[in-house]
Amino acid sequence: MVTDFENNTWVINYSLEDYYNRKFSLEEDILLSKSNKTITWVNTYGLEYMDEFRKMVLSNELDDFLLRLLLNQNFGNKVIELEEQLFIAARIIKTENHNLESEQMFFVVAKDFVWCIQEKWGDHFDWIRARIFDNKGIIRKKKADYLLFFILETLISNYKEKYEEMVLMENMLDRATKMEPTPEFMFEVENKKALIQQFKKASHGLRDIVNRLERVEVKGFHTKYFSELREQINGLTNDIDSDTQELESQINLFFSIQGHRLNEVMKTLTIFSVIFIPLTFLAGIYGMNFENIPELKWPYGYFVLLGLMLVVTIISILIFKRKKWF
Fold first, then answer.
1. Would residue 263 count as lying in a domain?
2. What is the rounded average pLDDT of the residues 175-204?
3. How far are the Cα atoms of 96, 258, 262, 271, 324 from residue 265, in angstroms, in the given order?
4. In 10 A of CB 88, how many CB atoms?
5. Same domain, 300 and 185
6. Phi/psi at 76 (nearest 5 deg)?
7. Lowest mean per-residue pLDDT among 49-63, 134-148, 244-258, 262-276
8. CATH number of the domain that residue 302 is part of
9. Strand partners, 109
């Protein structure tokens, strides 16, 4: 009877001469090859099969410390050297759709097998499988460390492509000079910041894994392939850090422009207020209801007051011009 674990696990066994690809069988398939000519790649979707994991570890005489490691389903990013195997935990983001989701992945690696355990169904490794099936490149001539290199390179490439698609920074100077600080704009900015932070966290996790893989000392595991990965992931993290700084600069620019606009408005209102304050003062004096105001009896008092107001206005404007307030 085929178990749920076997329905969600596929095995590819390949060598330079041949390959096969089918659902995994706990009774028939093994991880450890009896010959050094074949490489086994097992891909399991789901982390809930602890009984089956135990059976695979014990039946293949793998390091039993793996059972303790696989129990922790929120391991984050880790590289642990065992006696003849390598355990890798990676917290990645799935890039299949627009709504990015987090996923825990485990890798158990030796010189002739890679056991890949993914929390959720689906991956971007079909192009690797196609190269194995079509015998393209040198993948069928290499050991499991080269397969792991391809898998990690795929994750990094997917990050880069999705990042450029979703978070590619643009020159927002024209937008910043025209937009208003509406709640919608602030929501857009916060979403972009959260998205960049999500990619940054995932990329830094992969970078730590790659840096650690360059220093491992496991029998039959070559570290030379991971120098190229380090350059790729460092390029991505540098782009993310650069875009983070650019976004902060654009936010500061936006609010600086908005603050400048507000200052211009306040300056204009202040100038008008200063001009009309003495005029309001004069109008207030002669608007009082006292009978002993001699100027009210003058035949030309009204015109004299208007002239005085005009002189005050002109003097105020000249002072403002001299001080270059406008």
1. no
2. 75
3. 48, 11, 5, 10, 16
4. 23
5. no
6. 80, -130
7. 244-258
8. 1.20.58.340
9. 86, 114
Lowest mean pLDDT among 164-173, 231-240, 308-317: 164-173
The token pair at 75 is 């391991």
How confident is residue 171, by pLDDT bands cut at 50, 70 and 90? very low
How far apart, in Å, are the Cα atoms of 188 and each of 35, 103, 163, 197? 57, 25, 16, 14
What does the DSSP 8-state code read for residue 220? T
Q: Give the number of other CB atoms < 10 A from CB of residue 236.
A: 22
Whether residues 98 and 230 fall in one domain: yes
Q: What is the pLDDT of residue 97?
A: 67
What is the bridge-based pairing of β-strands 39-45 and 113-118? parallel
What residues make up the domain containing 91?
4-257
Number of domains in the chain: 2
Nearest to 221 by CA among 114, 91, 90: 114
Q: DSSP string of 257-274?
A: HHHHHHHHHHHHHHHHHH
Q: Tell me how far apart the alpha carbons of residues 235 and 147 are, in angstroms, rounded to a whole number.
A: 22
Token look-up 């995994």 returns: 24
